[in-house]
Design a protein that fits this description.
The protein has helices at about 5-10, 50-65, 75-80, 100-110, 120-130, 150-160, 175, 210-225, 230-240, 245-260, 280-285, 300-310, 340-345, 365-375, and strands at about 65-70, 90-95, 115-120, 135-140, 165-170, 185-190, 205-210, 265-270, 295-300, 315, 325-330, 355. It folds into 2 domains: about 5-240, Aspartate Aminotransferase, domain 2; about 245-375, Aspartate Aminotransferase, domain 1 (Alpha-Beta Complex), CATH 3.90.1150.10. The protein is of the alpha/beta class. The chain contains 14 helices and 12 strands.
Amino acid sequence: MDFQTLCIHGCKNNYDNTGALCVPIFQSATFAHPGVGQSTGYDYSRSQNPTREYLEHTVAVLEEGMEAIAFSSGMAAVSALMELFSPGDHLIVSDDLYGGTHRLFCNISIKNGITFTPVDTPEQMHNAVTSATKAIFIETPTNPMMQVIDIEAVSQLAAEHGLILIVDNTFLTPYFQKPLSLGADIVLHSGTKYLGGHNDTLAGFLVMKDSDLSEKLRVITKTTGACLSPFDSFLILRGIKTLAVRLERQQETAMKIADWLVKQDAVTAVLYSGMKSHPGYEVSCRQASGFGAMISFSVKDEKIAERTLERVKVIQYAESLGGVESLITYPMLQTHADIPAAERLKKGIDGKLLRLSVGLESADDLIYDLSQALYGGEV
C-alpha cells in the first residue's frame, strides 16, 4: 500500500461501531473489568489507551517496525530509552545532536553512570567502541549542522559488535527515510514536529524492530509513566493524515529557498542535504527518498543574524520545527544554548548561524520575507 494511503488508513483496528472515520478520543483514566481476573485489554491509561494504541499501531506501520510507543514529548521518549542502560555502560553518539538530547546525556545520564563518546563518522565510531559500549545513537541529518551519516555503514558496525543502533528520524520522518530497513534497531521521533505538523501539541515516539526491545521499553514506559494523552494522540493522528502531502510541498519550497540563499551576498554558507554541493548528498540519495525541509545557513556577521530574526514577518522567530508555519531559530541562544560555548563554537554553532524550518506558505512570500529581513529594508 502506498505511504500516503497508509497515513490515512494505516491502522485497521476498530474501536466502535458508529462508522466514525476518526478514532474516538477515549478520555478515560481507567477501565472497568468485566469480572475477576478479566480485562477488556485496557485497565489504566498509563499502561494503554485505545486512542494511543491506534496511533502507536499507525506509526509502527509507517516506520515498518514491530511496535511503537507514544510519549508525552520527544525528550520523554529519549529519557525512557536511556533506562535500557546501566551504570558503567558506554554509548557512541553523533557529535552534532539536538541540544535537548545533549543536555539529557550530559546533565542526567552521565550522573547516572553512563558515558558517551561524540564522533562524526562511521570510521570514528569504529575506533570508539570499547568493551563497555552498548549502543550507537545518531541523528541524520543532524541538528542543526545538517550532517548526513551513513545508516547502513553504522548498522554494520553495530551488528559486528552486538550494539543497539538508535536513529533519530525526526527531520526526515518515515516518508523520506526508514532507518529500520537500513539496519537500525530503534527509531526515535519528536512527534511534536512533522508527525503532528501543526505546532499544537507535544509528542514523542520510539519504534522497535524486535520484540525483546519492545517488551523492555513497554515495562519502562508503564513504570515511568510519560505516556501520551488520548487527546494529544488524536491530534498527532490528525497530523499524520497529511504528512506525505505536507512534506512534498515543504521540500519543494525548501529547495527554492536554498537555491536563493546560496546567491545572497549576506549569506556565507547554506547547509541543506538536498544541494549537490552538500558533502552528504550522495549518501542522502542512497538512504533516503527525499531531503526534507530543514535548512541552516550562516550570515556574514551577528548583526545581520539579529536583524533577520527581528525583522521576519511571515516567518516566525520561534523554537521547534516541522509545522505548517515557517519558523526561524537561533541555535546559539535557543536549541543549543546549554552546550558549553567552546564546544558549541567547535561545531560551528555561533552567532551567525540560523536554522529555518520551511512551512507551507508560498515560496515567493518566504523568499521576500527573508530578503527584507536580511538586508534591512523592503525589496
